[in-house]
Design brief:
2 copies of one chain form a homodimer.
Chain A (H helix, E strand, L loop, with lengths): L18 H20 L3 E2 L5 E3 L1 H4 L3 H10 L2 E3 L5 E4 L4 H11 L7 E5 L2 E3 L11 E10 L4 H16 L8 E7 H10 L5 H12 L6 H12 L2 H11 L7 H8 L5 E3 L10 E10 L7 E8 L13 E7 H10 L14 E5 L5 H13 L4 E3 L6 H10 L4 E5 L1 H6 L2 E5 L4 E5 L1 H11 L1
Parallel strand pairs in A: 1-5, 8-9, 13-14, 13-15
Antiparallel strand pairs in A: 2-4, 3-4, 5-7, 6-7, 7-12, 8-10, 10-11, 11-12, 15-16, 16-17
Helix pairs in contact in A: 5-10, 7-8, 8-9
């Protein structure tokens, strides 16, 4: 071994999950799973290692993305490997592989970790986890409605109320029709307007208008575009359906475009209404022919994603963390009175564990008082001191550390008490 | 987009988890978690990305291991990164980072995915998941006993019986004492004998004896080493304690050495007794000063690991897969009679979901009979056809697909029925 001491820090831009952090992650993942499954979605997963061609094949723009924003390396078999930066290409690959065996509509969800090689900043780490839900097959607008309803329910199931967030909906086909009605049909111009409009909330009204003018070079449509984009009363069948389902914190927002090229119809975002956490949390939409890279009949779908960091910030902002499900460690600590009692304590522990009580033995070498204090500090609910006396007469004292009371009895009596009181 | 079709296969040596595969993985992970937590172990995790120095720093042997058997690459910030091949260095780093804040004994578990760059073969993929349990702090032999008891219970909690596996125990300190009693004290010679003995089950008795002779070059100790290694009656305090805890499928096996250099005391393996799956499933042991790389006071511990592929093979070999917990997808499928009924079906679905019933809507364009057949094929328990008639009179027919019976009633009556019957 070398004498050089190495750092205890994790790799740059990723997180260590100590038990308290892990409890929060698990709370998020469990709630996500439960909501997705209540809609009949089935969980899948894949390796984080994917052939780089899965991301490169979409053209020059993606070539740059793969080279500069992903972890891509060549393995010793000369294969180019990428740590997956998003789940959509993976799920498209899997759906394409099983298309003949699957019964559509297919409802799948996953909670993958995703990697991006970028400058770490708030909410944008190099590794994060993301809930991905997709509904494959139907092109009916009620599939779009279901996906938005599921995204809504994901937040509601954490205890959120509708005032805490807003659902912003748009539709790329509707936008094309609106532009066409103004005589703008060149896909290149439409694309430029869309990308500019996507940034509208981040730039000044003046900058937006000037840039729009540069693209179109004609004053009349600019005014009309501004009117249609700012039309607060805009509606469509998806929005009407959401209202009929009792979801009222939704509206049409013509600036919503979503970054990914593969969206072709409805697109949506969910934003936090709290000004201190004012940002997009959930994004998704409808895409056609997701599996085109792999050949065969087109398969369309609709889906969304939400990240763990974003979810964590939302729960913190709105004080939605539960206390109980974040508890880690044992409910009961058995403390041997002497080192000789360690094995006896292990035997007794087995009896409590077999009845479903999370039980640990403090086999450290500290003094009894310190061990009890440690248990209290670590939020262990109950302790039992196990000594020769207690073992001989089969009568144990169960101390409730939270309320500083205690209870005497046989192991069986204390099991019954604990099952009723914890 | 390019016209070139790309493969739907995953990267070499890793797995896709389609819903049926994922259900098996989750069954394994859930059972592992439950058992570890019943012993008061707390879950942690970290990123798969670790600084390469975490693995390199242990000397030349490790240098080779890192270069040839791990995924290691240089990021654009010129940092060497390794995809973690095992969890022990990571947990040592995390324990070292928080040593001042932690209350020992610390009981931690994790279910990380680990990466090895090697030729894919049965049970040795490039990516696998592993349950890792470690107890840090106490050097008492009862900590060793607890870890073996936990490993035993991990298998029992899947429904295994003690005849299905054997616990083989050894102790590196005891082996050193036994060798010393034969006059063999040179650590280099002891190391050579240990590595040879570790391979004893894989080579012939003759080859073992010849190789031993080459190392020692003295006939008398060779005979004595053979005797002590084959001593079926060997015992120690750990084995006696296991017996007193009712664990009888354990014995001392002097050939058990375990590959890792960091083990310093008790070492153990659990092997499947079925001749068709005859191999080591669980391995672990005691180590001292795991955190030496990071400086500070030594921290010792005892732990073990078991992989998901091995676990999967054990459950298959002994027919221990449950049927019920492997079911994925909805319990109830609502089938709209006409496309116009899609939205009504979504509204009704919300009512079932809010009562905890996993409910999906078949918004596909197939015929009614085909949709019902699809639901049956996908093992959906119940279907309700939602048409204008049913909506108008508020009376729905719930078909039980498993037993081909049905039940009529209002949504509320059917909710009550389903909660009582599924």
């Amino acid at each position: 071994m070398s004498d050089k001491k190495i750092s205890t820090e994790s790799y740059k831009g990723v997180r260590d999950f100590f038990p308290a952090d892990m409890a929060k992650e698990r709370h998020i993942f469990n709630s996500w799973s439960k909501t997705a499954e209540s809609f009949g979605f089935e969980r899948y997963d894949a390796s984080i290692l994917e052939p780089a061609e899965l991301y490169r094949s979409k053209g020059a723009e993606n070539e740059e993305l793969v080279n500069e924003q992903t972890y891509t390396f060549t393995d010793r078999g000369d294969r180019e490997v990428t740590l997956r930066p998003e789940m959509t290409p993976t799920v498209a690959r899997m759906i394409a592989a099983k298309r003949r065996e699957l019964t559509f509509p297919v409802r799948w969800y996953s909670i993958p970790n995703l990697f991006r090689y970028e400058r770490p900043q708030r909410g944008r780490l190099r590794e994060h986890w993301q809930l991905n839900c997709d509904l494959f097959g139907p092109t009916d607008y009620t599939a779009d409605v279901e996906i938005i309803t599921l995204a809504y329910q994901v937040l509601i199931d954490f205890g959120a109320t509708p005032e805490m967030f807003t659902i912003l909906i748009n539709d790329r086909r509707e936008m094309s029709e609106l532009f066409a009605s103004l005589g703008i049909v060149d896909p290149e111009i439409v694309g430029q307007i869309t990308r500019l409009t996507d940034r509208k909330k981040k730039i000044s009204a003046e900058e937006y208008q000037t840039s729009l003018m540069k693209i179109i070079n004609n004053e009349a449509p600019v005014t009309q575009i501004l009117q249609l984009i700012e039309n607060e009363a805009a509606s469509n069948s998806v929005l009407n359906a959401l209202h009929s389902l009792g979801i009222y914190n939704a509206k049409i927002d013509r600036t919503i475009a979503r970054g990914f090229d593969y969206y072709t119809g409805m697109v949506f975002e969910i934003v936090d209404t709290d000004p201190t956490n004012n940002r997009s949390m959930i994004g998704g939409g409808r895409y056609d022919d997701l599996t085109s890279l792999f050949g065969g009949e087109p398969i369309s779908g609709v889906g969304f994603g939400i990240g763990d960091v974003t979810m964590n910030d939302f729960l913190t902002t709105h004080k939605l963390w539960p206390q109980e499900s974040l508890k880690t460690g044992p409910s009961l600590m058995l403390i041997p009175a002497e080192a000789d009692d360690h094995l006896s304590a292990q035997k007794i522990a087995a009896q409590f564990r077999s009845r479903g009580i999370k039980t640990a033995v403090d086999i450290g070498s500290k003094k009894l008082g310190k061990k009890i204090a440690d248990a209290a500090e670590n939020k262990v609910g109950f302790v039992i001191v196990v000594g020769q006396n207690e073992i001989d007469n089969g009568n144990f004292e169960l101390k409730n550390l939270a309320i500083e009371s205690s209870q005497n009895g046989s192991i069986e009596e204390l099991v019954t008490y604990l099952l009723a009181n914890s």
